[in-house]
Design brief:
Two copies of one chain form a homodimer.
Chain A: H1 5-21, H2 28-39, H3 46-55, H4 63-75, E1 79-82, E2 90-93, E3 101-105, E4 111-114, H5 117-130, E5 133-144, H6 146-164
Parallel strand pairs in A: 3-5
Antiparallel strand pairs in A: 1-2, 3-4
Helix pairs in contact in A: 1-2, 2-4, 3-4
Chain A binds a DNA duplex (25 and 25 nucleotides) through helix 2 and helix 4.
DNA sequence: ATCCCTGCAAAGGGTTTGCAGACGC
DNA sequence: GCGTCTGCAAACCCTTTGCAGGGAT
């Protein structure tokens, strides 16, 4: 989904309403961060968001504010937070997106999204079975993407050749 | 699965063979850490493993060695590593265990294991569909366990009473 | 004897915190 | 004007690294 003005208006209204409801303040920083996030179409980490705000937009925010705002946006479901193995959280906008999960290439770190209705079934079944009120989940599959599979094969051939020398 | 001597012998042999195969050294530290892990039946983090080794067993290892050995054990599939949201990895022994996933209570942090064959199906289907050679996955569900659901209800009642005063 | 592995402590990376000043309400 | 948010930098936590000495092969 590309960035478009209408979507951003909706999102801004949701955030605005959320802040009002929680008696939090509607600051320029919070809305600028929200906007920057909704201009992006991929997964990103807090640091790159921070850098882009200062560099591209010449907008000076502190890391503290970036983290604080990300937390707020996660709370009101406008942003999703992921841990793809490393100790660095990844984020993505979530308004208007279909619920989805991720496949990550362990070689090139590419992230692909997928969707399977069976996850929902498992969620509700396990919630009932174990008496949990399930709020969310995280499903990541790790493997080697098509490109990297080829690269690996090429590398093996090269090594074999080198050994023949 | 409780700790038993036979299982531990098998596990020790696997680790030993793995080290030999990789031309790594069979040190006391490595086997002591393996033993301590296989005496445990729950999830743990590197720090608590480190503490137990020095405190309970009076065995002085350094954190560096604990981390190093955990990596080795993950590589040879005797230990599984998880990220349950926080920036602190959780580990569990995995030999002889059925593949399983986790439900985590967001209030009390309790971890419950579950198993669903549909995960396997999704894995192989998505691998084929997206041309990924999938090696492993991580599925965590987050929610509120039965106990904590009751606690929350009690808290709400208390608050309501307090407001009546 | 070799040189990998260890212990130690310091560095590292991501995130959180404490405080003084700024600004939304 | 009050009280929350912000920026800044230091603190924090978990993990990794560098180095010198010790033990497995």
């Amino acid at each position: 989904m590309a960035f478009n003005k209408e979507t951003f208006e909706e999102v801004k209204n949701i955030f605005s309403a959320y802040l009002e409801n929680k008696e939090l303040r509607r600051t320029t920083e919070r809305f600028t961060i929200l906007e920057e996030i909704y201009k992006r179409n991929d997964h990103f980490d807090a640091e790159s968001l921070f850098e882009d705000l200062s560099r591209k937009k010449n907008f000076n925010v502190s890391r503290a504010t970036v983290y604080n705002t990300l937390d707020l946006l996660v709370s009101c479901d406008l942003v999703k937070k992921h841990q793809f193995g490393k100790n660095q959280a990844q984020f993505e906008k979530s308004y208007g997106y279909k619920q989805h999960d991720h496949i990550i290439c362990v070689d090139c770190k590419k992230v692909v999204e997928f969707c399977d209705p069976r996850i929902q079934q498992i969620k509700s079944m396990m919630g009932d079975l174990l008496n949990f009120k399930i709020t969310h989940h995280s499903l990541n599959m790790y493997g080697i993407c098509g490109n990297c599979q080829m690269k690996r094969e090429l590398d093996i051939k090269k090594e074999a050749k080198a050994e023949l020398v």
